[in-house]
């Protein structure tokens, strides 16, 4: 597992290491269409997105979806996403950055809210699994916060020190999860949130993964 005292990165997957914006927007609009809602643009999505996800839908619908509506939308979203993610790839420069962090003797892991049994083969298919000491996706219902998942993730890493751990993600919830375990966070503007909403969180905000890793190195020093 991790080495006590060494810097560690917990990577988010969707919208961070995995550049899947097109699949996310397409899946969201497929779910909206089921309820007769107008399609959403990437810009509007990035301005309004939040977790728990039903709150995001409330911002768009003017009300919370009913339990039945949420179940239908969630099922359609994941079915569409699974079909269209195959056209998506890793974020530019990700493979080199992962290899560099590992070769420097530091550890890293993935914690994603994407379903675990689909995340693991996806990561493996890109040939990057060996860079991580743990790859962990969501087990259980979708739509919630990452905070409690982060508690279990950090515990499972063993020797990793939360004080020298930096979470790199594309959503405000990544920073919330980091704070929940005493870690730091760096937020990346290339995914689900625009810069304006990320800057409200009060942690470093960057435009590239290269900048994110450099900032993580500084924060974990």
From TrEMBL:
Domain of life: Bacteria
Gene3D superfamilies assigned: HAD superfamily/HAD-like, Putative phosphatase, domain 2
Stored InterPro entries: HAD-like_hydrolase_sf, HAD-like_sf, HAD_sf, PGP-like_dom2
Protein name according to UniProt: HAD hydrolase-like protein
Lineage of the species this protein comes from: Bacteria, Bacillati, Actinomycetota, Actinomycetes, Kitasatosporales
